[in-house]
Design goal:
The protein is α+β, with helices and mostly antiparallel strands. About 70% of the residues lie in helices and about 10% in strands. A hairpin with a 7-residue loop joins strand 3 and strand 4. It starts with a helix and ends with a helix. GO terms for molecular function: efflux transmembrane transporter activity.
């Protein structure tokens, strides 16, 4: 047996070596996100700084494009800060799980007559010491799950920002087209009023034109409110204050459609390789298996305490008449009633649950990629048909109607009706173009990020720490 001082020194040295400091763990998350199409060249930041503020101000001096919106959101959005704060909390838990429990010092003072006894005991959980490498490895695996979750949160923010930007630009563009239709309706209503006053039109004909104007005014009011709501949703995602929001301007039009879509043969394999929620599910299963192994190792004896004791007895309350006893103590639980069956069964059930989750996420990933690719391809066909066929035909009809009007073979009412129909056709084409770009964002998210419920589906971290905790809580 080691002498007391040597044993105490060894325990202190081991405890010092086991100390792990949290570091925030942001660089590994950025490495996971490198090259993601949803992020472009943007970098996720834990907190806004002077550089990000200057970048935001520079981007707000001209109409904000989609990539600029993502850059601002990843630098300034409160959601970005919350995601990294959650990662920092997980890193602190990792550091805590990978550290030894503190030694316990016990002091006792006993008196019998004139005899005084002082008892001192310094003890440490030996099982916690022996299982430290296991717990550190488990904590590292749990931290990998947290990194993947944080990366998913970043990708989700980028996707939401792109969707909000597309909706804001589309809503603004729709309001512009409806203003053209409103102007045509106003012109028709005013002309109908004058013709009715001159006795050339009936009250019914004039009322129909006025009804058309009123309906167009209502549609425009709804479109303008939708444009305001979409703009404010984008402002919230970007984390802009009131002054910055007032300076925010958006482009007049959505991005042009691609001429063709890339081949989709490898999309399902890409999802199985790159999806962050699937990687998080696999890491979670590995951490759960590690915790199951720890539970099996400590099934019967989950706490062993080793202590150094020093007892001093003063026979007559004098320092010259005393005796000192030194030694060591060991505390070992007797597995008489609790044989660890419940802990073992719970660990096995958690592992089976995590393995089923991996399979479920994989199946969902493949299905969601197929669905997203089908939606994107169909949206491209519709939008491309509008661009290649419908809008050219509509322009041809407009030109023919103007020629007929100039030749006095078409009335002004036909010309105004055609202007309203043209505005509706252009608006439908723009909506189809917006739907394609939204489907493109959904496909990129399905390929690399997570399903809509992906961030909530992998929260099994509450149960697993209880398994590892059996190695550290038994004696205290």
């Amino acid at each position: 047996m080691l002498p007391g001082a040597a044993l105490l020194g060894s325990l202190v040295l081991l405890a010092g070596c086991a100390s792990v400091a949290p570091d925030g763990d942001a660089p590994p998350v950025r490495a996971l996100l490198h090259g993601q199409p949803l992020l472009g060249d943007a970098q996720a930041q834990r907190q806004p700084d002077a550089a990000s503020a200057a970048q935001a101000e520079a981007l707000l001096t001209h109409p904000l494009d989609q990539e600029g919106a993502v850059r601002i959101a990843l630098a300034r959005s409160p959601r970005m800060q919350a995601a990294f704060a959650a990662l920092q909390l997980s890193d602190a838990d990792r550091a805590q799980a990978a550290s030894l429990p503190n030694p316990v010092f016990t002091f006792g003072r006993l008196r019998e007559g004139r005899e005084l006894e002082l008892d001192r005991l310094l003890s440490v959980n030996v099982v916690g010491l022996l299982t430290l490498p296991w717990r550190a490895r488990w904590a590292g695996q749990r931290q990998e799950v947290a990194r993947l979750d944080a990366a998913q949160a970043v990708l989700q923010l980028a996707a939401d920002t792109r969707r909000a930007w597309l909706r804001a630009v589309a809503a603004r563009q729709a309001a512009v087209y409806l203003r053209d239709a409103r102007d045509a309706a106003q012109a028709g209503a005013e002309l109908a009023r004058r013709m009715h006053q001159a006795g050339n039109w009936s009250a019914l004909q004039a009322a129909r034109e006025q009804l058309q104007q009123a309906d167009t005014d209502a549609q425009l009011a709804r479109a303008e409110q939708a444009a305001t709501a979409s703009r404010e949703a984008l402002v919230r995602l970007l984390g802009l204050d009131a002054a910055q929001a007032a300076r925010l301007t958006l482009p007049d039009r959505l991005p042009a459609l691609p001429d063709a879509l890339p081949d989709s043969a490898e999309l399902q394999a890409q999802a199985l390789r790159d999806r962050l929620d699937l990687r998080a599910a696999r890491a979670d299963a590995a951490a759960t298996a590690e915790a199951q192994g720890l539970t099996r190792a400590t099934r019967f004896v989950d706490a062993v305490e080793l202590g150094i004791t020093r007892n001093t007895t003063f026979a007559n309350d004098g320092a010259s008449d005393r005796s000192t006893q030194r030694g060591a103590e060991i505390g070992l639980p007797i597995p008489l009633f609790d044989l660890g069956q419940a802990r073992g069964a719970r660990a096995e059930a958690l592992y089976l649950q995590s393995a089923a989750r991996v399979r479920g996420v994989a199946l969902a990933a493949i299905s969601e990629v197929r669905e997203a690719e089908s939606a994107r391809r169909q949206a491209w066909r519709v939008a491309h048909r509008y661009q290649a066929e419908v809008l050219p035909l509509q322009r041809q009809v407009n030109d023919e109607m103007v020629l007929r009007y100039n030749a006095m073979s078409a009335s002004v009412w036909q010309l105004l009706a055609e202007a309203r129909a043209s505005a509706r056709t252009v608006d439908a084409a723009m909506q189809a173009q917006r739907d394609f770009w939204l489907a493109e964002v959904d496909l990129q998210m399905a390929l690399t990020g997570s399903s809509p419920a992906g961030l909530a589906a992998l929260r099994s971290a509450e149960a697993a720490p209880a398994l590892a905790g059996t190695a550290t809580e038994g004696g205290h």
